[in-house]
Amino acid sequence: MKIEVGTPALYGEIQRFLEDVYGHSSGAFSEGWPQVWRKEHTALENSLLVREGGRIVSFLRIFPLSIVHKGARIKAAGIGSVSTLYSHRGRGYMSALLMESFARMRRDGFPVSILWGDSHRYGHFGYEDCGSSVHLAINSRGLKASGVPPLEARRYFGEKDILGEIRKAYNSNSYRMERIASDFRTVYSGRGSATYYGFRGNLFAYLTISSTESGEKGSVKEFGGSPELLLGLLGHLSERFGITGFRLSFPGLGEVPRILLEASSGWTVGKTCMLKIIDLRETLRIISGRSDFFFPGGAVLTLTVKNGQSVTLSRKGRAVSVKEGKGGVEVVLEENEMTRLLFGQTFWAPEEIDRETYLLLKRFLPVGFFVGHMDTV
Question: What totals of helices (H) and strands (E) does the chain contain, helices first?
Fold first, then answer.
């Protein structure tokens, strides 16, 4: 089996292949995800494929992502457009492409990889469900009970001054993707969504919802700015389009503004994505720099991946030391278990560890991980 790297000359062929495999309409990828699939934004040198009989039969793409979580920047390798022709499944093509992608991630210095899928398909490659997304339900009754009057929601159509306000609101989030200027210009132009905004005095808010033809009524894909104005925008859109309920997603319950929580009819918790740790030392070094990472002073702990890296954490004063090697109490876990420990939806640790180590781990783990809907690939 020969694995090839994509080239710009293959753009059209790859689009047709993906539309066929996923059963999507023509132009669905470039129009639905313009920030990563419009031709001028497509880095096909980050894609891998297999041909048979002169045509593409299996394909995946690596999407380099720069994620900001609580002041720490994470260089992540997103995996997307994982696809094999129905007639060619079960031949090991995708396994080979994934293994090659992991080698490239290590070479290119990505400490983690993320994707969206299920454990039966990706669990044995080291991916594990991670992150805790809180989904807030706000219905028309809650909007009325909030006491916030509807605020006229104006449609955003690319105005430069409005985009500047959106950028400021988005970049104030504790959990976000680092977007370059072209990303902001493009991300809100995708098929299936519509972006609205509003002002009241010096306050500003915006939100992106599923457009009326998408079939996802009430799904809020992104939002930012004043929480009070956000309720006003929702109230206006509820009346205008007859939407009886909205769903907003947050990195955690602690990230939900009180006014929104009080207006909600309830909330649920779900996973954010699946994550695989490529480099444990670098991953721990990055998360130790988060503003909410509190490794206990005086503690020394080694985390070891079976048949893989051992990394020791220690703290003296305010500084957390992250070093390759062993020292202090050691916790040895399988690859996906290590992800579950560090980034799980709730605290988890193996039953066989002693109580003192269990309590130590529980003091600073898991750390939050979140990727917003508009930043998925």
Answer: 13, 19
Angle at 12 (CA atoms; ends 179, 7), nearest 5 degrees: 70
Listed in sequence order, the residues at least 6 apart from 93 whose beta carbon sits closer than 8 Å to its beta carbon are 1, 50, 57, 58, 84
AA letter at 177: M
CA distance 134 to 137: 10
pTM: 0.92
Q: Please report the beta strands in 18-152, taking only residues with DSSP state E, as ranges in sequence order.
A: 47-52, 55-69, 72-84, 112-115, 128-130, 133-139
What span, in angstroms and rounded, lies between the C-alpha atoms of 314 and 199?
48
Judged on CB neighbours under 10 Å (0-12, 13-18, 19+), 322 is buried
Nearest-CA neighbor of 133 among 262, 21, 246, 252?
252
Strand partners, 311: 303, 324
What pLDDT, in 10s, does the model give residues 201-228?
999 999 999 988 776 788 999 999 999 9
User: Mean pLDDT across the stretch 343-371?
Assistant: 95
